[in-house]
Amino acid sequence: MEEFHAAYSQANLLYGLEMNPEDFEEIGLVAWNRIGNKQIRLYRVTLDVDCDTKSAELPCNCDEIEAVTYGHEDWNYTSGTQVNGDYDSAVVEEHIELRKAYMDPLYQSGKYVKYHRSGNTIYLEKDCGPINILYRGVELDDDGLPYLNSKEIDAIAAFCAYIVYNKMGIANSN
Question: Stretch 62-85: mean pLDDT, rounded?
């Protein structure tokens, strides 16, 4: 896997393309989205929730959310024998969670959160505090651009050259 700007070097090498790096990123991302061959993986992140808006900003590479949970396990809040709930059940649930082994990669511990997503923001129905998110996302480099394989690099270089030279041809024709 190569960094995204390797396609710029390839376009320069193969097609003699000279263009502004910001313009290249824009056109290259259009090409990358058209290819549709995204390298994704599972990520886990803990986010703090803004208590005023009951929202949290998702990472920029978050495509599909698998699970959103609180950091604590669900326990018996109500009890017929105890006034404030069964605290022993909370201790038992945490103990069970610590002893689990051979978990599925899609497993996320904690109590599930009711939420809805709008763009890159997640809104909770109630409560606030840290939440755990398990999501699928595109592998990004330090600049926030996707990693590419060699065929994607060639395709993006060719697409950028096509767009730039086509635009030059139209501008220069009588």
Answer: 73
C-alpha–C-alpha distance, residues 165 and 85, integer Å: 71
Which whole number is the average pLDDT over 14-19?
Answer: 93
Spatial separation of the C-alpha atoms in residues 10 and 134, rounded to whole Å: 35
Task: Give me the amino acid identity at 116.
Answer: H
Q: How far apart are CA 140 and CA 3, in angstroms?
A: 9
Strand order in the sheet with 40-47: 40-47, 131-138, 62-70
- Helix (H) or strand (E) holding 167, with range, is helix 150-172
| Alpha-carbon gap, residue 137 to 120, rounded angstroms | 13
The C-alpha atoms of residue 168 and residue 158 are separated, in whole angstroms, by: 15
Residue 165, helix vs strand vs coil: helix
- Contact status, residue 152 vs residue 5, Cβ threshold 8 Å: no
Residue 31 has pLDDT above 80, yes or no: yes
pTM above threshold 0.85: no
Q: Would you state the structure tokens that stand for residue 15, as one six-digit string?
A: 């097609």
Q: How far is CA 80 from the centre of its chain?
A: 44
Looking at the chain, how many residues does it have?
174
Is 8 strand, coil or helix? helix
DSSP letter, residue 31: H
**Could you report the per-residue pLDDT of 110-124, keeping only the tens digit for each?**
778 889 999 999 999
What one-letter code names the amino acid at 69?
A: T
